[in-house]
Amino acid sequence: MKKILIVDDNELNITLLLNALGELYDVSVALSAKEAFEAIEDELPDLIVLDIIMDEISGIEVCKKVKSEERTEHIPVIFLTAAHDALKSSAYEAGADDFMGKPFEGAILRANIKRLIKE
After folding, report:
1. What is the DSSP code (8-state) at residue 96?
2. Is the pLDDT of residue 3 over 70?
3. For the chain, where are the alpha helices, taking DSSP H only?
4. How do the residues of the chain divide into helix, strand and coil, expressed in percent and rounded to 5?
5. Under CATH, which number does the domain 3-117 receive?
6. pLDDT digits over 19-58, tens only?
7. What per-residue confidence (pLDDT) applies to 99?
């Protein structure tokens, strides 16, 4: 089963994502950038679903770090954020593989994940 790491500091968003993805993937959760880096270090995910606006370290910075390291640069990153178009170019410049707004449609998210991890 493919592993997905959800990084979001909002527990409601995490619940919605777990409901959309939990039966299809081995999903782990990080509530902060620090937890995300620890989770990635412990076990490489096949894909990361990442919020942009978080406390302390933004999702943009998390993505830059993931994409700049040889061990993790291959991991697809989908930004899922309420920040919509204002930060879209920054997300892609950081190395994002996809960008979706909140609220999201589960079927579209699942299709994008399937495309990126080539199940």
Report:
1. -
2. yes
3. 11-21, 33-42, 59-68, 88-93, 106-117
4. 45, 20, 35
5. 3.40.50.2300
6. 999 999 999 999 999 999 999 999 999 999 999 988 889 9
7. 93
Q: How many CB atoms lie within 10 A of CB 89?
A: 10
At 119, the pLDDT band (50, 70, 90 cuts) reads low
- C-beta of residue 88 within 8 angstroms of C-beta of residue 98: no
Within 8 A by CB and 6+ apart from 56, the residues are 32, 33, 34
- Burial per residue of 74-86, b for 16 or more beta-carbon CB atoms within 10 angstroms, e otherwise: ebbbbbbbebeee
Domain ranges of the chain: 3-117
Task: Assign 114 a pLDDT band (cuts: 50, 70, 90).
Answer: very high
Q: Which residue has the tokens 């493919």?
A: 2
Tokens standing for 100?
A: 């979706």
User: Considering the chain, what is the average pLDDT of its residues?
Assistant: 93
